[in-house]
Amino acid sequence: MTEVAPAWEAVAALGRAPGAGAIRQLLDADPHRARRFGFRAAGLLMDLSRTSLTEAVLDALLALARARDVAGFRDAMARGEAVNGTERRAALHLALRMGDRPWRAGAEDAAEAVRQSFAAMAGFVMGVHRGSIRGATGERFTDVVSIGIGGSDLGPAMVARALWRPGMPMRAHYLANVDAHAWEALRPTLDPRRTLVLVASKTFTTQETMTNAQLVKGWLGQALGAAAAPLHLAALSTNLPATAAFGIAPERVFGFRDWVGGRFSLWSAVGLSIALACGLDAFIELLGGAREMDEHFLTAPDATNLPLLLAALEVWHVNVLGLSARAVLPYDERLSRFAAHLQQLEMESLGKRVTMSGAPVAHATGPVVFGEPGTNAQHSFLQLIHQGTAKVPVDFVLVARPDHPHPTSHRILLANALAQAEALARGRTEAEARAEMARAGLPPAEVDRLAPHRTFPGDRPSTTILLPALNPASLGALIALYEHKVACLGAFWSINPFDQWGVELGKQLASGILPALENGATAADPATAAMVAEIRRLQ
Length: 539
Ligand SMILES: O=P(O)(O)OC[C@H]1O[C@H](O)[C@H](O)[C@@H](O)[C@@H]1O
Known about the structure:
GO terms for molecular function: glucose-6-phosphate isomerase activity. The protein is an alpha/beta fold.
């Protein structure tokens, strides 16, 4: 047996112990549990008290982290080693946060590369905001459209939505889906003379993005003349030849390196729309918040390291308790796309079935992640989480101070979030349900009939992350927390969290099916061929 196997076995044994997974009794036994299992970094409080973690479980998970050398993987990542083994690349999104560390990606001075691309971005943003960079008709830009998909869309779109307030420099719009209904819905809201278009694509070959970019370039050309369109375009990409071929002048191309993974790229030029819409200062503060979490991640001891603890909890839930989904519920409307961002960040990173060396994994990997803002989620899928047969851990994200002048609304929002966490953990026993119905005066037969339906099993885990306020720094720290959790889980599970081969097959098949839809060529797969025939009949 290797050192790793006994560490796994120790964790698994705790999972088989009587009472493992219980939460209510832990809460009852220790009134200080919230203090013991509350952890702070970068202004965030992470409360793990409403989980079934115990001192023994945590110790075993931290021993497993040592056996799996999670800290070693983290440090190799920070040293710019090729931790993305299948693509032979570093994963150096930490360098984008522009800390003082001498970041290197292999032989490259990554810190210098980041400084240069940030300086170019900053110059452009200031030029647009001051009006020295204008559209072809001399008008100032008021709107920015960022065309991109996946990592070139979800992060920036989520952040801009979270941070934008009336009066900020520009309005940002995001165009991702190749479904042209998205463009047709956006188009009438835009004045081409005042619209700046960013084509955000790391590879600059993504079919959806290039299709939309051609549509929007055509719209600019029609409205302003083909020669004027380039004045309204910029590219955010690592593929300089392709941006030039698309007709974007080199000084309008904001680059980044291949060691920035798509789902980790909002801190790079891919985040240009954030800086344009919310201001350069906000973007710098966002980087600063992430940097604070980075420093914590790189230096805090395991036992108080928030990303590592969050990852360890996920191992406990997924591998020991067999919980294969997790819900993310930000109780803040401005974070309405936060779950969408985490869906990509976590599921694209951790949806793997072979180890870094290509052998089948011996255990479950990434859970299904989904979510919606609260309180809306309460009136939707939380029924299943309270009373369904599947146990689904929840991440609550709460913001203490709102930016609106309606304290009553905010108190109602927070009371609901806290009530959900309490209800999930404590539940309501059948005896409690019966007593309550009796107090309400229900006849005994009704009490008997409804008791099973009004019983809540409890012992359903949740994590609460509290932000003092939602601002660029706290949001940067929050996102970085999850990024680092993902890296830790890659190490725990010995999978590559930085590649995404799973998206390739569908891409290849789509290009084979396109001719069948265009001219009736027979698709290779009979089910596809039958559906193509029916679609063509209806068109
Ligand atoms: O930025 P791009 O090269 O256009 O890629 C956009 C997205 O598409 C790919 O298929 C991957 O699934 C994502 O990781 C990536 O973020």
